[in-house]
Task: structure prediction
Amino acid sequence: MPYYVYILQSELNGTFYVGSTRDLGVRLARHNQGGSRYTKSKKPCRVIYSEELADKSKALVRERQIKSRKSREYIETLLRMRLTS
Result:
């Protein structure tokens, strides 16, 4: 079953959140209902980037890669690469 790595952006203050999930729609709804401590005060959020991966372990590895390089510039690079491919 596929897993997703995603990046949310707060519509309130523009901050980013990186996570992984099996069901992106359900997870986004939870974020926007206050189901995550980090995004609770930053809602509403929207998905600005996602990647589908084969399984949970690959998704967790990719999530850690993104978080280890987490910066506005890196996220903007991911978005630009997505738009040009």
User: Anything to note?
Assistant: The chain has one domain: 3-77.
